[in-house]
Amino acid sequence: MTILTLAGSPSQNSRSSALLRYAAERLAARGLTSDELGLRDVPAVDLIEGNYGGSAASALRKRVNAAQALLISTPVYKASFAGGLKAILDLLDEKALADKIVLPIATGGSTAHLLALEYSLKPVLSALGARHILAGVYATDRQVTVQQGHVAIDDDVRERLDTAVDRLAKHVSTAPLSQGYDLGYLALNARFSV
User: Fold this and answer.
1) pLDDT tens sequence across 120-176
2) Which DSSP helix (H) or strand (E) runs through 58?
3) Three-state SS for 118?
4) The pLDDT of residue 186 is above 80
5) For residues 75, 78, 83 and 89, what is the CA-based torsion angle, rounded to 10 degrees?
6) Beta strand 150-153 pairing with 137-140
7) N or C of the chain: less Cβ packing under 10 Å?
8) Alpha carbon of 154 to those of 7, 20, 46, 143: distances in Å?
9) What does the alpha-carbon distance between residue 117 and residue 121 come to, in Å, rounded to a whole number?
10) How far apart are CA 148 and CA 194, in angstroms?
11) The Cα angle at residue 74 between residues 70 and 80, in degrees rounded to 5
C-alpha cells in the first residue's frame, strides 16, 4: 500500500513540512511506509510554466496514481493555501485523486485562517476527484515551532494530528487491494451466499 506525503511549502524546514514529517513517522510506527514528494522535486520552471508534458510532471502523476492515500501539507498565505502547492496540483490529471484517501494539513499565522482548508484547499482536491477527504488538521505558528532542526508541536495539535493519521491508517488498512472479489474469502466470512 502506498502513501504519498506532498509538501506544499518551498521550505524543507517549514512548520507545515514538520507536521507532515511527524505524520509520516506516526504512520511508520503503525507499520505503514510513506513516500515523500515536495516542491523541490519538480523543477521551478515546470511549475511556473505549468509544463504538463514534461518528464517531471509525468513522474509526479505516476507517483500520485500509484498512491492509495495522500497527506498534503501547506502553509496558509493570505487566507489561502500555498501557490506552489497549487502549481503542483495543476500538473495532475483531472481525476488524479479519485479513489484516494486525502488528509489535508495546514499551518498559518493565526486562527483567522483556520477555514482555508475548507474553503480553498478542499474544493481544489474535490475538483481533482477526491471524494474521501478526511477532516484536516490546522495549526498556528505558535503551536508549531522549528528551531535549529528541533520541532516542537503543541499537545493539542499533536493529539489532533495523531487522531487524523490513525483514521487515515485505519482506512488504508481496510481498503480493498483490488477491484476483484475473492469469492472463497467472502463465502467463509458470510458475506456471500449462493
Assistant:
1) 999 999 999 999 999 999 999 999 999 888 999 999 999 999 999 999 999 887 655
2) helix 55-66
3) helix
4) no
5) 70
6) unpaired
7) C
8) 20, 15, 36, 5
9) 5
10) 64
11) 120
The three cell numbers of residue 61 are 502523476
Taking the model in full, what pTM does it have?
Answer: 0.86
**Could you give the CA distance from residue 34 to residue 3 in angstroms, rounded to a whole number?**
5
Place of cell 503543541: 154
What DSSP character marks residue 134?
A: P
Q: Measured between alpha carbons, how far is 38 from 26 in angstroms, rounded to an integer?
A: 19
Query: Counting Cβ atoms within 10 Å, is residue 74 exposed (0-12), middle (13-18) or buried (19+)?
Result: buried
Strand partners of residue 106: 74, 138
Strands 144-147, 150-153: pairing is antiparallel
Compute CA distances 22 → 15, 65, 158, whole Å. 11, 24, 9
Cell triple for 158: 499533536
Does residue 67 contact residue 100 with C-beta atoms inside 8 Å?
yes
The answer to whether the beta carbons of residues 169 and 32 sit under 8 Å apart is yes
Residue pair 30/166 in contact (Cβ under 8 Å)? The answer is: yes
**DSSP state, residue 120:** I
Interatomic CA distance for residues 162 and 168, integer angstroms = 10
CB 68 within 8 A of CB 97: no
The pLDDT tens digits for 34-46 are 999 999 899 999 9
